[in-house]
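Re: that backbone. C-alpha cells:
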C-alpha cells in the first residue's frame, strides 16, 4: 500500500510494517494504523511514525534512553491484552518528539510514552497524569 505523506512524499508500506494502535492515540483516536521508518539521510537515532489512516499525521519518535530516561511501566491486563503482550521483555518503549516553531531542539514527551509489541505489531500510548521520578546528578569527581 502507498501513503502520500505531505512531509515525506510517497511511502510504500508492506503489511508486515504496519503497527496498529487498537484504541488510537489520545486526540487521534481514528488514526489506528501507522508505519515506522527512518527518514532518508537522517540520523538513525529517531524514527517517523506515519499514520496510514491520515497522511497528514506523523510523529518523530525515539528511544527514551537517548535522553538518559528509563521507564518501569506497569500495564493492566486489559492493556497487555490489547497489544497481545505476554512477556514484558518483548515491549519496546518510545517517546514522541516535538519541536516548537522557531526552535532547533527537539523535546521528548516523557509523560505519554508509546509501548510497542514488535511481535504482534500492536501498540498503545500510556498517558501518565503525573510522573514519579527522581533526577540524580553525578558529580564529575565520581
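Recovered sequence:
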Amino acid at each position: 500500500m502507498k501513503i502520500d505523506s505531505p512531509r515525506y512524499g510517497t511511502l510504500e508500506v508492506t503489511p508486515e510494517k504496519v503497527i496498529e494502535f487498537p484504541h488510537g492515540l489520545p486526540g487521534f483516536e481514528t488514526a489506528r494504523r501507522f508505519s515506522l521508518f527512518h527518514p532518508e539521510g537522517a540520523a538513525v537515532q529517531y524514527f517517523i511514525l506515519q499514520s496510514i489512516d491520515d497522511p497528514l499525521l506523523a510523529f518523530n519518535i525515539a528511544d527514551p534512553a537517548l535522553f538518559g530516561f528509563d521507564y518501569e511501566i506497569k500495564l493492566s491486563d486489559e492493556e497487555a491484552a490489547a497489544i497481545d503482550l505476554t512477556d514484558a521483555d518483548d515491549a519496546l518503549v518510545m517517546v514522541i518528539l516535538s519541536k516548537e516553531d522557531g526552535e532547533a531542539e527537539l523535546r521528548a514527551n516523557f509523560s505519554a510514552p508509546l509501548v510497542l509489541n514488535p511481535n504482534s505489531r500492536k501498540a498503545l500510548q500510556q498517558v501518565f497524569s503525573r510522573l514519579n521520578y527522581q533526577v540524580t546528578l553525578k558529580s564529575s569527581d565520581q
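The helical segments are 77-82. Residues 134-142 have pLDDT under 50 and may be disordered.
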